[in-house]
Amino acid sequence: MNMTDEFLSKQRLLVIAPHADDETYGCAGTIARMRSLGAEVYVIVVSVGTVAHYGVKDDVTGGVRSDELDSVMKYLKVNDYDILYRSDQIHLRLDTIPRRDLVGLIEKESRLAIDRVKPTMLAVPAVSYNQDHEIVFRACFTACRPHLPQYKSFQKIFVAYDNPAISWSTEREKFHPNFYIDISAHLESKLGALSLHKSQLKPSPHHGSVESVEYLARVRGREISVDAAEAYMCYRFVL
Q: Do the beta carbons of residue 161 and residue 124 sit within 8 Å?
């Protein structure tokens, strides 16, 4: 085992996703690699609900989204996962929840909260035009505010993950990756996981298509001279 694999094998990763599928777009390759090495991986999905997709005739129900997520979590062999809100009134309206309430759930009040899982590595959604991604990022950032190292919620590794959709961003909020994980051996697992989110797939060349996700992974890989990678923005890395 090389030094990188040894390091990853000892981590306990918590991925926080605004919606079912964000964890896969951003982190499925990382999850697959870390689980193959014996690392612990947990996932919190903040909201699952019924939604009418733009340009699509039929609504996708929250039940369908939950079932798809369950299939993906089993496929990726995560240790555990949780959904915080299963409400059609809240889905895509997370910005209507007081941020303090969401911070509390992420920090200590939910079943897989930071204080309970005690992750060594936290992956959260990057800031984007999506209001749910924005509020989840801000709530996670607050939950991981500076503490003395003995506090459970002090996160030594705090990163924000990539998503094909965030290419549509204001200049000030552009995604500038500075932390990469080689997923060359796990790209097929990432694409396999994404294919299980059937209701969310779009035809190529839409940015949410399986093909586009593969292209992005290969572009991120070329940025570090490997076949495929997942990219992150690192906000804190303490050794």
A: yes
